[in-house]
Amino acid sequence: MLEIDFDDGCSFALSAELLRVESPSAEVQGHTLDEKKIIGGCRHVGITAIQPIGNYAIAIMFDDLHDTGIYSWDYLYELGHDQERIWQCYRENLTRLGLSRDPQP
To answer: Matching InterPro entries, A to Z (predicted)?
Structure first.
C-alpha cells in the first residue's frame, strides 16, 4: 500500500495491485488506448522499492519484477481521485476477458 498526501489536503491509499495494473509504462499502457493490457493475477503483488525521479515522479518496483513505470505526482493524484471508477473498469475488463485478480496456480 502506498499512502500519499498532497498539498491540497487530499490523501490517498493506493494498493500495490492498483499501482501495478495501472502502471504508466508503455508495456502496460501501450502507445494507444487500444493497446492497453489488462493484467490479471496481481491481487497479492507487492512493492519492493520506490525511487524518486527528480521532483516530479517516482519509480515503483514490484515483486513480479515489473519496474518500468514512472509515476508522476499528477498520475498518482488521478489514480487516487478516480480509483473507485478505475477499479470498477478493471474488474469489468477482467470478467470480459475471463481473467482473475488471483494468480494462476
So the answer is: GBBH-like_N, GBBH-like_N_sf
Residue 78 clears pLDDT 80, i.e. is over it = yes
Kind and range of the H or E element at 57?
Answer: strand 57-62
Average pLDDT over every residue of 9-24: 97
In sequence order, the β-bridge partners of residue 14 are 2
> Is the dihedral angle over the CA atoms 48, 2, 16, 81 positive or is it negative?
negative
Domains of the chain: 2-97 (3.30.2020.30)
